[in-house]
Every structure is written in structure tokens, then in C-alpha cells.
């Protein structure tokens, strides 16, 4: 389960780093790069509101990152989090980046994030499958995580 452990840790660190970048003091410095042509005057309600909204997004990223790092202590029991992160990377990651590209935002920046989310997804799925094989081989908890996603769907 080493790969799954390290996937949780590295993905968690990446989420924390991205979350910190959305703290208003840091985000204000790069607002023009994030939203080219943002025309709300500094100090206006729209300007402050946008930064405040992005703070919530950043805090969410930090919380997810901390949870992923905590999950690395018991990776197989936390395996359903892989499904959550893969889903978030597909929807809030890749789909959102494509939406941004279509709407004229930075092609290069968004393609970098598409690559990041693709790596998170691919390595996460490989790590999950590897950990599942290891669990089956060791007979751990009937090779089921704490919450079996399949049993919730059926």
C-alpha cells in the first residue's frame, strides 16, 4: 500500500499548497493573471467579495489536503477518498479547466492544471488498484475499505 500512502500524502500537500495560494493577500497579487481584465476597482465591494469567495475555495482545498494526509496513516481504510478526489479532479478540475479555455482564459495555465488533474486521477486509480490487490493477498478486512463504494450504489 506504499503507492496509495504516498498518493494521499503528495496529493494532500498539493491541495494545501494550492489552497494557500487563494489566501486573499497572495491572491490579490495575481488577480490580473487569474481573471484577465478584472475591472472591479481595488477596495470596491466586488473586488473584496471576489477575494473573499476565493478564500473559501482556498480553505476548502486546505481542508481536503489535511484530510488526505491524515488518510495516509490508514490508506486502505480511507480508500473511498480516492473516488472523491478522482470525481473532483474530473468535474472541478478538468471540466472546469476546459470551460475556462473555451471562455478565453489562459490556454497554457489551464492545460497545466488539466495535466495536474490527469496525473492525480491516473496515479490515484493505479494506487487504489495496487492497494486493493495487496489487501486481497493479505486477506485484510476482506479487501474492503471502511466504506465500500460499490455497496452504497447497489
Overview features:
single chain; 154 residues; mainly alpha; 7 helices; 75% helix; elongated; transmembrane helix
Per-chain topology:
Elements: H1 2-20, H2 24-29, H3 31-34, H4 45-71, H5 80-102, H6 107-138, H7 149-153
Helix pairs in contact: 1-4, 1-6, 5-6
Protein name: BphX family protein
Organism: Agromyces atrinae
Keywords: Membrane, Transmembrane, Transmembrane helix
**Total number of β-strand segments?**
0
Number of helices: 7
- The helix content, as a percent range, equals over 70%
Return the average pLDDT rounded to an integer: 89
Rg over CA atoms, rounded to whole Å, is 18 Å
Q: Kindly give the count of domains.
A: 1
Residue stretches low in confidence (pLDDT < 50, at least 5 long) are: none
What proportion of the residues form beta strands (DSSP E)? under 5%
User: Main beta sheet, described?
Assistant: none
Class by helix and strand content? mainly alpha
Shape: elongated
Give structural notes.
InterPro entries: BphX. The chain is an all-alpha fold. The longest helix has 32 residues, at 107-138. It has helices at 2-20, 24-29, 31-34, 45-71, 80-102, 107-138, 149-153. Helix 1 runs antiparallel to helix 4 and helix 5 (80-102) packs antiparallel against helix 6 (107-138). It has one domain. It is elongated.
Task: Briefly characterize the structure.
Keywords: Membrane, Transmembrane, Transmembrane helix. This is BphX family protein. With 154 residues, this protein is mainly α.
Amino acid at each position: 500500500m506504499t503507492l496509495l500512502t504516498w498518493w494521499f500524502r503528495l496529493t494532500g500537500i498539493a491541495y494545501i499548497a494550492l489552497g494557500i495560494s487563494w489566501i486573499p493577500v497572495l491572491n490579490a497579487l495575481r488577480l490580473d493573471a487569474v481573471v484577465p481584465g478584472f475591472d472591479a476597482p481595488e477596495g470596491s465591494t466586488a473586488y473584496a467579495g471576489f477575494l473573499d469567495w476565493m478564500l473559501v475555495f482556498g480553505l476548502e482545498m486546505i481542508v481536503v489536503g489535511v484530510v488526505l494526509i491524515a488518510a495516509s496513516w490508514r490508506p486502505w481504510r480511507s480508500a473511498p477518498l480516492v473516488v472523491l478526489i478522482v470525481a473532483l479532479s474530473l468535474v472541478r478540475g478538468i471540466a472546469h479547466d476546459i470551460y475556462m479555455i473555451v471562455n478565453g482564459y489562459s490556454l497554457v495555465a489551464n492545460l497545466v492544471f488539466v495535466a495536474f488533474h490527469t496525473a492525480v486521477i491516473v496515479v490515484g486509480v493505479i494506487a487504489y488498484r495496487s492497494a486493493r490487490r495487496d489487501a486481497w493477498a493479505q486477506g485484510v478486512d476482506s479487501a474492503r475499505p471502511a466504506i465500500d463504494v460499490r455497496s452504497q450504489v447497489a
